[in-house]
Amino acid sequence: MSVDLRNRAVEPDFAVAAGDLPSAETVEASLMPHDLEASWSRIRSRLQAEVGDVEYRTWLRQIRLGQAEGDEITLLLPTRFLRDWVRSQYGDRLSALWHGEVAQIRRVELQLGTAPSTLTEPDPAVVLPEAGLHGKLQSRVQGQAAPAGILAAEPQASATRADLAAPLDPRLSFDSFVVGKPNEFAHACARRVAERPSSPGFNPLFLYGGVGLGKTHLMHAIGLELARGGRVSVAYMSAEKFMYRFIAAIRSQSTMEFKEQLRSVDVLMIDDLQFLIGKDNTQEEFFHTFNALVDAGKQIVVSADKSPSDLSGLEDRLRTRLGCGMVADLHATTFELRISILEAKASASGVAVPPKVLEFLAHKITSNVRELEGALNRMIAHANLFGRSVTLEATQEVLHDILKAHDRRVTIEEIQRKVAEHWNIRLTDMSSARRARAVARPRQVAMFLAKQLTSRSLPEIGRKFGNRDHTTVMHAVSRVTELMQCDTAFAEDVELLRRMLES
Ligand code: ADP
Ligand code: MG
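Above: the input record for the complex with magnesium ion. Below: its predicted structure, written as tokens.
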């Protein structure tokens, strides 16, 4: 399926607000806003199918529908660069598609601008108490929910409905989650909850770990799996959203409704609970909701950046209850997991990314899967855009800024220590005058790695190796490069050392 449901779910597809509708004098009767919206929606889908997901996301997703006037329709883009690019690359196609949809439209005007602010806000799934949470969430997942513009234009009565849950992103499924040592336990727990919610021992499920390690992904995966079955209503939201909803409910004197809605779900998932630290009233409310749901045999899934016991500032009784079910942590990724994730994402993109590039990225970007993914996506977009294949050189060039930020400062001393350990020689031999091959070769490798992994100059490196001359370092670099080409075992050794030093 090529339609990008996430964008549908979190961004309003239609940006025509009632106040901005062209007046009856300027537009013929056939150009009703909902017609335009429907046309625009079809055009977007067509475009996406034509240009592919990545290109669509990179350039076209941000187009907003502006006004229609006479035979012209205005589309809005947020930056000059995007506008110019879209105009030059897709201008004609957009005109043709529009004309095909609405015969009267002959021109597409691309302008700088954004959609009216009320409609550019991400619009969470709206929960209708009478329809229950599930129906809405389901329809969101399937991308059939009423567009934001229409929801916003609904009569006053609906404005008081609490929009409780956020949409689930169909891309964050179990299928797209790559399992490795660091996350296998959390993944197994998540699977288990998705298969049999509310089983004793797994309620609540508390997922914790650093930024970008997959907590949100696993929560969406659980939600998607459960919502797919059709019988379970799932509400997923960030703790922050929970707080805003709660405060809004207090303001509009609808706390009862808020509580009832929350308590009517089968599965409640609150992401990034650490946000509630210091927000005492909201914590209290969450505590009560939590108890009511657990007592009623409903499943709770919570994520946070730390374990319950380390979340200082959380009320004790809440902390205790959070720790009562299953607590699972997502560990920092390993090189192997990063490679697997990159491989999966590259193969899903359909762009050939050489293993060398994947390894390079997995070496360089170690802390956060989101950034790793972002880097890969940039390379893929670049390849699609310029029709060039992804190479190591292009990667270094395109990702220059990201890579610089991730340059881990490996010191020459660290390199010397690791290399000496690896070949079992004394650290002092790194700077000694001994020339026996058993010590000279490792020394050359250390110099080679110092050149590769640090920004030190050749003379600086030479000095750290017993005041050797920079030509000695140069010679070491070319000798090691040569040897790596003809001796695979040696090349693997050097690669391994590099990996260890970089991770
Ligand atoms: P967190 O909520 O822990 O900060 P996310 O779940 O938002 O992290 O993950 C960040 C990004 O990395 C998401 O795009 C997610 O899909 C991706 N990601 C993280 N871990 C994995 C994994 N094991 N397999 C596939 N993608 C992953
Ligand atoms: Mg998250």
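Notes for the reader.
The chain is about 55% helix and 10% strand.
The chain has a mean pLDDT of 81.
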